[in-house]
Amino acid sequence: MLQLFIYCVFAIQIRGIFCEQVVRTLIKAKYVKDISLFINSSPDIDQWLSLRSTKSYFDSEYEYFADLKLNNQSLAYLVDKFKAEIKFLDTNSTRKVKRLVKNGIVGKYVSYDEITEWMLKMAKENRDLVRVTSIGRSFENRQIYVLKMSSKWRSWQSKPLFLFDSGIHAREWLSVATNIFLIDKLIKQFRANDADVVRIFQNFELHFVPLLNPDGYEYSRQSVLNRFWRKNMRQSSNGFDHTCYGVDLNRNFDHKWMVSGASANPCSEIYAGSHAVSEPEIKSLQEYMMRKSPKWLSHISMHSYGAIWLAPYSYSREHLSDNFQETCQKALTAIYTIEEKHGFSFRFGVASHELYEASGCSEDWSKDIAKVNHTFVIELKPDITDYSGMGFEYPEEKIQQAASEIYDGFLEYIKTFLGSAIQNRIVNECRNRLNWIKEIQNY
């Protein structure tokens, strides 16, 4: 095991004598339950990509894998106890991130204050198209803003709604930058009389929450050591005179709370909070959506990374949404559009099948409680098969390309709600997927 210490060159921070690194951990199926318990109960292990099946991503003699940031002591334990195979990822958290922004914020990683200023500016300059309101405040009392877009103001009250949120996990900066890009391009294309965008705004109201977790996001920007912060900034005690910070906001929704894939330990990366909706960020979003239910047609929550569209349910592999086939068709329409236009392939699947079981999540709550017809979590770039080590540190110079791909996919996705024809190959593929799921689970 002494050879593991050679890899301290990959360290991103030092805690005592233990160097930390990011590794891809490959695991045999017989160990997956025990190793999952170990990972979820270890506050020193940061899950970049939680346990998932290898079969959807690459060929391997191992059935499961996870990307973990951990110290050498935990790494040695994984190898010795669970016979895990380790692949070191080429990470570099000292990568420079621009802090001062000139010439606008689109395509940049910027601060909460810059995002807020920009949203208010968009509303002021586009009074016929844009409105910005606060849906509530964060734990540290920052405003959480929603930007709404549509045309023909007087008819807004009767239009169906779409919601796109991002930044629920602090370190997932690309999701925030992508949401900002979408807003900016939609406004520009509407002004250019793009027929698709004009038609969308005539028929729908699009709502954007670019930064749902502003406290954690700002904390992740403060220094290299905080860059991979995931949770909000709630201060809690673990009962042993030890203070820990943060709640995983995507385990705090009021749907099957603490049923699966969540922790009651405040020091855990997936701490679900003291009770469902304990966090003001989630309370604000839930109340905002419920006030407008059942007008929501779709809710998409953007995350990074992994390049996959995930449909409900997340909390259990034993349950499937009642409109899975239609949801599949809409998702694949977007995915194939991106592939045809840009040559990049996203995957699609059920969250609990493709990743892991996790309760208290946004897509499950939106589907069952807010009565949203079509809900997704979208993991943005990079793809899991990319071993460059970009992960959460997706290069700023690549934001525009990544966000452009999502824009093209989203446009075709929204058009399916206007009666845009679904390709026969997509209809057949989704029918086959549904039959396959029913067969393996004996629905």
Distance between the termini: 46 Å
β-sheet strand percentage: 15-25%
* Low-confidence runs: 1-18, 93-101
Task: Choose one word for the global shape.
Answer: globular
H/E topology pattern: EEHEEHEHEEEHHEHEEHEEHEHHEHH
Q: Give the % helix.
A: 25-40%
What does this structure look like?
- With 443 residues, the protein is α/β, with parallel strands linked by helices.
- 33% of the residues lie in helices and 21% in strands.
- It has helices at residues 32-40, 72-82, 112-125, 173-191, 195-203, 214-221, 280-292, 324-342, 351-354, 362-368, 399-415, 424-441; strands spanning 14-15, 18-27, 46-53, 64-71, 85-88, 130-137, 143-149, 161-166, 205-209, 235-237, 243-245, 296-306, 308-311, 347-350, 374-383.
- An 8-stranded mixed β-sheet has the order 6-7-9-8-12-15-13-14, with helices on both faces. Strands 1, 2, 3, 4 and 5 form a 5-stranded antiparallel β-sheet that branches.
- Residues 1-18 and 93-101 have low confidence and may be disordered.
Defining key terms:
443 residues; disordered N terminus
How is this fold's topology laid out?
Layout: E1 14-15, E2 18-27, H1 32-40, E3 46-53, E4 64-71, H2 72-82, E5 85-88, H3 112-125, E6 130-137, E7 143-149, E8 161-166, H4 173-191, H5 195-203, E9 205-209, H6 214-221, E10 235-237, E11 243-245, H7 280-292, E12 296-306, E13 308-311, H8 324-342, E14 347-350, H9 351-354, H10 362-368, E15 374-383, H11 399-415, H12 424-441
Parallel strand pairs: 8-9, 8-12, 12-15, 13-14
Antiparallel strand pairs: 1-2, 2-4, 2-5, 3-4, 6-7, 7-9, 10-11, 13-15
Helix pairs in contact: 4-11, 8-11, 8-12
